[in-house]
TrEMBL record:
InterPro entries: P-loop_NTPase, PIF1_helicase. SUPFAM superfamilies: P-loop containing nucleoside triphosphate hydrolases. This is ATP-dependent DNA helicase. Residues 287-311 are annotated as: Disordered. Residues 293-311 have a biased composition (Acidic residues). It comes from the Eukaryota.
Length: 545
């Protein structure tokens, strides 16, 4: 952004402006274009950043939490303490242990004996600042370790959620509904900042754990898990506060009384690993089942057939009776779709019988010199021919042989004017009870004006008698409430007992799961068998077929 500003700063020259403010608009446009090209973000998102508007909307805010720094600090203090406590045979000037003396305040020894300057066994990122001619190092753990004395009983997790730090000399006044306290004198910001706790943040702010995954409760190193949980939920200022030297981390964990909320949070931490275990178990079951199916196929191949040129596989009726796993699943799906269409009022009649009769397997002459590429071409041609016969069977009158228009309306492939009756907010459906249902659904989901408008258009259209097909696009950035509109429509159609009138599809598994639907490939039967492993062109051809 700075490079763009310096490169085009001549556009801000007032003397060269044709209109007042034109130079500023040009500079803003150049900065947005530069951000769009370098950051790979769209121009609307770049404009949102420049206007200091959020690029997404969430119900909660996430606070960055580098939990490993606190864990390493606690472990490092105990490791250094144990290393210092181990006696050395050649050491004669050993400092007597004084329980009332802090490690940081202990006196230094002379050069002939050991000192309390311990080698850190962990790394920690610090921020260097200069104040009154001195350089100060501030780490991520300082805010909690040197928090005000009035907040001694606050655990680390609640501190990350609820703590607010405010500069004392800031022109922006602090919140008057909170109690502000001074940090301890050892904190680098002792004279420049104050701190307060906001209990309301507990409901709206969630710590975002950044770094390695938390230790597992039911696996891995039990001592690391107990140390991590005590670091999060037991108040401390130094690592020595969490346990005594004569007990282990597990014993200290078992002795500490966690609150009901803390116990629930620890269970939530482990839910991620439980999901991973369930995924791995399901994958193992599928894999073992697939291997058993392969063994059954191999046993069938070992039976052998008569080599007299009259095997039963050459008979179409035999092939129709013996279907593979993928073909059987596809037939079941087709039968379910036909049943759903019939229940929706789609009268297939004699067309379905004619279509099924036309879908007989073709007779192909097999030559020993036929190459694989030629065989693939034959398969593609026959698949395309079968698809045309299948689709044509529903559109062609079996008696007259003419193409039918199921809707009886004129087919228009152009822009044309629609009736705006159901687009209006004042639309009155033929049945008044559906109007009350719309209002209740809008109230239940708390739809904003934009969401309500999209919902009413679709709901009004569904209440019309014999309406034309509604082709509607509902767009927006992430978090704007598109899925909420879809869930509201699902409830609306469910109350009308018309779930069959819509299908929820998504391009990816995540998007489909968010709306409770299926992916395009699953619903349309794409890639139902083994992957072809072909190029992009081959995949496109397969979708077209």
């Amino acid at each position: 952004m700075y490079e763009t500003f310096k490169k085009h700063e001549d556009v801000l020259d007032i003397a060269k402006e044709e209109r007042p403010g034109n130079g500023a608009r040009q500079m803003l446009t150049k900065v947005v274009n530069s951000l769009s090209s370098k950051m790979e973000v769209g121009a609307p998102m770049a404009a949102l950043y420049l206007l200091q508007n959020p690029d997404h909307y969430t119900s909660h805010q996430f606070v960055p939490f580098y939990w490993r720094n606190y864990f390493n600090y606690v472990q490092g203090q105990w490791s250094n303490l144990l290393d210092f406590a181990e006696p050395v045979e050649e050491d004669t000037n050993i400092i007597p242990e004084d329980p009332d003396v802090e490690l940081d305040d202990a006196p230094e020894c002379d050069d002939t004996g050991p000192t309390l300057e311990m080698t850190q066994t962990h790394t920690e990122t610090v921020q260097m600042t200069r104040k009154n001619g001195y350089y100060l190092a501030k780490s991520n753990t300082d805010d909690y370790r040197f928090r005000p004395s009035q907040l001694d009983r606050i655990c680390l997790y609640d501190f990350i959620q609820c703590s607010i730090k405010h500069p004392i000399r800031s022109t922006r006044h602090p919140r008057k509904d909170l109690r502000w306290f001074r940090l301890l004198e050892d904190h680098p910001h002792f004279s420049s900042h104050a701190m307060a706790l906001d209990p309301v943040r507990r409901e709206m702010h969630v710590p975002h754990f950044i770094g390695p995954s938390l230790p597992r409760r039911d696996g891995g190193n039990r001592e690391d898990y107990c140390c991590a949980m005590l670091t999060l939920f037991c108040p401390w200022r130094t690592g020595i506060d969490l346990k005594s030297a004569d007990i282990t981390w597990e014993e200290a964990f078992n002795r500490y009384v966690f609150s009901e909320r803390q116990t629930q949070l620890m269970a939530n931490f482990n839910m991620r690993y439980e999901c991973y275990d369930a995924r791995d178990d399901y994958g193992a079951i599928v894999k073992s089942k697939g291997s058993n199916d392969d063994d059954d196929d191999d046993s069938d191949d070992e039976l052998g057939y008569a080599d007299d040129g009259e095997n039963a596989e050459d008979d179409d009726e035999y092939l129709a009776m013996v279907l593979g796993k993928a073909a059987s699943s596809l037939n079941q799906s087709n039968s379910a779709i036909v049943a759903a269409l019939k229940s929706a009022g789609w009268k297939i009649g004699s067309l379905a019988k004619g279509t099924l009769n036309n879908l007989k397997l073709p007779t192909i002459a097999i030559d020993s010199a036929l190459r694989s590429s030629a065989w693939n071409n034959i398969i593609k041609v026959e698949k395309l021919r079968a698809w045309r016969r299948k689709i044509g069977g529903f559109l062609v009158d079996s008696e007259a042989g003419e193409i039918q228009n199921p809707t009886g309306r004129e087919v228009r492939n152009d822009v044309y004017i629609l009736s705006n009756t159901y687009l209006s907010k004042d639309f009155v459906p033929p049945d008044e009870r559906w109007r009350g249902l719309m209002s209740r659904v809008i109230s239940d989901f708390k739809l904003n004006p934009g969401q309500e408008k999209a919902f009413r258009i679709i709901a009004n259209h569904a209440c019309c008698i014999a309406p034309e097909q509604l082709l509607m696009h509902l767009g927006g950035m992430g978090g704007t409430g598109k899925s909420t509109v879809i869930r509201a429509l699902c409830q609306f159609f469910t109350k009308r007992e018309e779930e069959y009138r819509f299908v929820l599809l998504g391009p990816t598994g995540t998007s489909a799961a968010l709306i409770g639907g299926s992916t395009y490939h699953t619903f349309l039967g794409l890639h139902t068998g083994k992957s072809t492993g072909g190029t992009a062109t081959a995949v496109v051809e397969e979708v077209r077929e």
